[in-house]
Amino acid sequence: MWFFARDPVRDFPFELIPELPEGGPPGPWALHRGRKKATGSPVSIFVYDVKPGAEEQTQVAKAAFKRLKTLRHPNILAYIDGLETEKCLHVVTEAVTPLGIYLKAGVEAGGLKELEISWGLHQIVKALSFLVNDCSLIHNNVCMAAVFVDRAGEWKLGGLDYMYSAQGIGGGPPRKGIPELEQYDPPELADSSDRVVREKWSADMWRLGCLIWEVFNGPLPRAAALRNPGKIPKSLVPHYCELVGANPRVRPNPARFLQNCRAPGGFMNNRFVETNLFLEEIQIKEPAEKQKFFQELSKSLDTFPEDFCRHKVLPQLLTAFEFGSAGAVVLTPLFKVGKFLSAEEYQHKIIPVVVKMFSSTDRAMRIRLLQQMEQFIQYLDEPTVNTQIFPHVVHGFLDTNPAIREQTVKSMLLLAPKLSETNLNVELMKHFARLQAKDEQGPIRCNTTVCLGKIGSYLSASTRHRVLTSAFSRATKDPFAPSRVAGVLGFAATHNLYSMNDCAHKILPVLCGLTVDPEKSVRDQAFKAIRSFLSKLESVSEDPTQLEAVEKDVHAASSPGMGGAAASWAGWAVTGVSSLTSKLIRAHPTTAPTETNVPQRPTPEGVPAPAPTPVPATPTTSSHWETQEEDKDTAEDSSAADRWDDEDWGSLEQEAESVLAQQDDWNTGGQMSRASQVSNSHHKSSKSPESDWSSWEAEGSWEQGWQEPSSQEPPPEGTRLASEYNWGGSESSDKGDPFATLSARASTQPRPDSWGEDNWEGLEIESRQAKAELARKKREERRREMEAKRAEKKAAKGPMKLGARKLD
Asked: How far apart, in whole angstroms, are the C-alpha atoms of residue 719 and residue 717?
């Protein structure tokens, strides 16, 4: 019947790739590349064609088929499937390459490293130890042609055609009949008598010596060449000489040879071999040992072979994260190995793990992800960012840990181009408004301003018009000097997004107020920005036809291309202030809420502050506003980032012990909030965290968060100038800033006018004084009322007498 006439080769689930054979061990087998029909996964297929009159070779091939099918060991060629017919034998194994071809390709690429060879020889010797000591089998064919290399660079022992039992079961060694293989036989085999005493492993260890010589020196021309070690490393020469000694009893057991080479200073005593041995036993290691191993692994990955990292280290890292408790320590080596993957492999293997990690409540893992987002952001698509990543990331804006808030702000530089219209223009702006107005850490407020300036080009036209001017104007009133500088540079970097009317009526008045700022760095940047905007206005005034060209970007839709022009306009803030933030966090883990009530300076006089270098006044492109101090604290940042694992971050699921006090809003109610914070600092808050957060939502909402800046209100009594504080420098605190007397913050007293007897500013100054005095009286009256009410409530809550009636 036709059913019994079907070709078994055609029904075999594997097929040969129509290419020339790759070669293989000298003998009957031919090595072909193949693939599985169902999945297309690559395999290697050894093919033997049965020929008439070659019964002896056929029996050898069938014996090899049987041995390979029954022997299972990590260092022996892995059998997958097989086919035996009257015409041929097919043996399917893992995809491998003959060692000779692999070494030749390595030489063309610059040569294999000794690390790779040391681990490869370790695997071959371990396979021989398994055969001799555990199975009592003699391989009888150890040579270059019997060794294969898989895609991870692992060496596998094959060529089992001439294997026989060391106990004499099944007869003696089969006859080879192939001169290329017989040249590796030890000299004692030529003596047919039994006078030579030898161990069962002696012949295979001689052949191992031949293999070592060929790996370092190329094909072996004759047995006499073994006397010259050639390029064999010095640390391996003594052990090599034991293998090729004339006395077979001196040749060590494979297990003993491994022990000798693993001794201190030995050829196989290196980090690469230790890493591989740990990975082989990682499933039985303790969690503490795994943590230590992954922490040290990233330092060594740069010296390891690329294929080894991709195909052996990466699967173990993914397994450790998914099924183990490795945690955040897996991230650094994971992203380091990810650099070796193609875009398709990265999307398939790494991205699902990253998305899953963002939903973790482990603070250490979250901050590691934020720090290393630059390495994987290009592989994330917009739907994934908006639906699976951004909802988890925004929780960092409300975190009680300043380091996580800061890293969350900086991550927006990378996420903004992929955010949707709602997430970018509404949700993100709400969080930025809250951070810029209410965060107690000055560097975080500064970084928020910097980030807003960098992502301004991605915002919609209506959002830009509503947000940018108000946000940068608010930043110029920040008590933290670098935040004021960031506000000025924010105006400069986004100068092409403002109309001429906004430049003249909204921006220049704000900048002019900064020309008498107590800090010289702020004044310098203000003068440069003023000159820039004035030259822009003057050019349009001279030639009104330029107005359309100058304002072409004002009403334009969001254009990602503009983001690159301002990509480094305030990099000093993101890098330099980042390290400053780390210092503040470590020096003062919980900052007092009234910390922002006084102007601050990051460094004393005479010490370079993290302020930008002078900027050209030409207003043509945003790149003119680039600063040169991005690398100032790079080394410090990297060292600080490496210490995140040493800190106890806790869990995001743990409820915060206390809610941070609300900070001053520089637009409305600022002075009253300061007074209430000072007067009530000794009382504990009775509000629950939920009620406090809801009040933040109300006060830090879009409508109130980005309001147009109002005129500066005078400070309350007792507020000291920045120049009056001793910031820790060598200069006396009594030495004031020469511009302090000119500052609107410093004094509200009218100064003598040099324009003549008439004081042109008298009315305005008197009006300001009257408003300030009225506001002060109202605050004092309100404070007395609150104290009276508290005293009354305290008296009413005294001990009640028996039978007394409680009054409402």
From this structure: 6
